[in-house]
Here is the input.
Amino acid sequence: MSIGTIAVLGAGAWGTALANCAVRAGNVVLLWGRDPAAMARLSESRENPRLPGIRLDDGVTVTRALEDLTDADAALLVVPTQEVRRSAMDVADVLTADTPIVVCAKGIERGTHLFVTDIIAQCAPACVPAILSGPSFAADVARGLPTAVTLACHDETIAAALAQALGSATFRPYHSTDVRGVEIGGAAKNVLAIAAGIVQGRKLGASAAAALTTRGFAELTRFGRSFGAKPETLTGLSGLGDLILTCSSTQSRNFSLGIALGQGRALADAQTKLAEGVFTAPVLTEMAATRGIDMPIANAVAAVLDGRLSVDAAIESLLTRPFKAEG
Here is the structure.
């Protein structure tokens, strides 16, 4: 398939960064956002306040009309997980049949327990769901710093075409057909990053941080395997790679939230920016419980977030677990 025009739906930091990225790869790019006033300011200033100091490429056309996206060969849906359904319904009748919709969110929908590509399949059934995930920060991608991610679609030909269309010297998408594995890595790592941030905020040391990340990866792997995820996906960019990045940098909203919680701040005060892990934690633990999957770190994070456990009680619950073989 030929891809030359890409619509980016969502003009936050990540959407703006991916719009710049898509232009660098040689595409015609349309950037759409829901807020007319914000889009008007972005069109005029060419700078997103969520990415200060980074100019929106002149090749990106800013639009407030969904109808302008009709001729797009592919769409990047760059909104928070809990907004995917609304945005998919917005574009369902705008995009032509068989247009790939690449979701660039990392989470699971509350209530339905649906993964993001399943939401696309439900709300825009004529389109082709795909997922982009991996170790990447918006500011790095927007500046053109080297980044590698995973792009998955059940149709390998489409996955490869999308990776080719978005790829450049500094943005390297590796294509895959393991859609579920990519989705699980992105969703679970946000929850585990909150735990890693708590360790940092409580000043429990580098050894504890390494142990938390490693045991967290074991939980992610158990969860992924129960859904048929491929081992190479879980140990790849969208699994282990994204976990390492998110559990080690204050650029991560989830890690930063965890630090604030570990320092004793209340959730309402600590969450100054959207952290997907807050919404994903209870869903992830509910799904794990249904399948009988042991996820003590994720359970502790969910309990802290909903007030069932204090940070100290959650740490104690993990440190007093029975000794057992590693696995």
About this structure: The chain has 15 helices and eight strands.
